[in-house]
Amino acid sequence: MVARRLGRRRYTPPMRSSAGRLLITTFGLGFMRPASGTWGSMPSVALAGLMMLAGVLPVGPTAWLYHGVLAAVLVLFSWVCVRFGPSAEAEFGKKDPGQVVADETAGQCLPLMLLPIATPDPLRIAVACAAAFLAFRVFDILKLPPARGLQRLSGGWGILIDDLIAGVQAVLVVQVLLRVAGPMLGF
């Protein structure tokens, strides 16, 4: 990234990389309306759901593959936020622009990684994925402490960190729902 001092402000040029633009908008989903963050969360949910339906489950002998794929998505899209975030902010003219949804793609992986699914039952998979998706979106929108405060970090870290925190908060809620309330509901 090329940056130079202009007075007291740091100048960051707009994005020059079409690959960077494609990734930071999660393949253009950031341009979808309404609720671009919701669209940006969908690829992680779809990927996890498809893996589970194919028998690659988060619990059992295929857990290493399930977790490895989601960890790769988490790391890739986190790196994309940090690397291309400042240029995206310059291009779209605001801090944490709505078109940037790579942070949602990364953050959504966290509650999906710890789902207690050991059988490829489509109903259980759908309920678990929906719980992870809804919990993440609620926490991402509410931005409970410390997410809101850390969102003020500069550049790509400010774009990313609140979504990672929302992911951790969603993990806690989904674990309680599926492990405690789930058996009481016959899940």
What structural keywords apply?
two-stranded antiparallel ribbon, mainly alpha, 7 helices, 2 strands, 187 residues, globular, disordered N terminus
Structural overview:
This protein is mainly α. The protein has one domain (4-184). Helices cover 65% and strands 3% of the residues. The chain is built from seven helices and two strands. The protein has helices at residues 18-24, 36-53, 63-92, 102-113, 122-142, 147-150, 155-184, and strands at 4-6, 9-11. Strands 1-2 form a two-stranded antiparallel sheet. Helix 3 runs antiparallel to helix 4 and helix 4 (102-113) crosses helix 5.
What is the topology?
Elements: E1 4-6, E2 9-11, H1 18-24, H2 36-53, H3 63-92, H4 102-113, H5 122-142, H6 147-150, H7 155-184
Antiparallel strand pairs: 1-2
Brief overview:
The protein has helices at 18-24, 36-53, 63-92, 102-113, 122-142, 147-150, 155-184; strands at 4-6, 9-11.
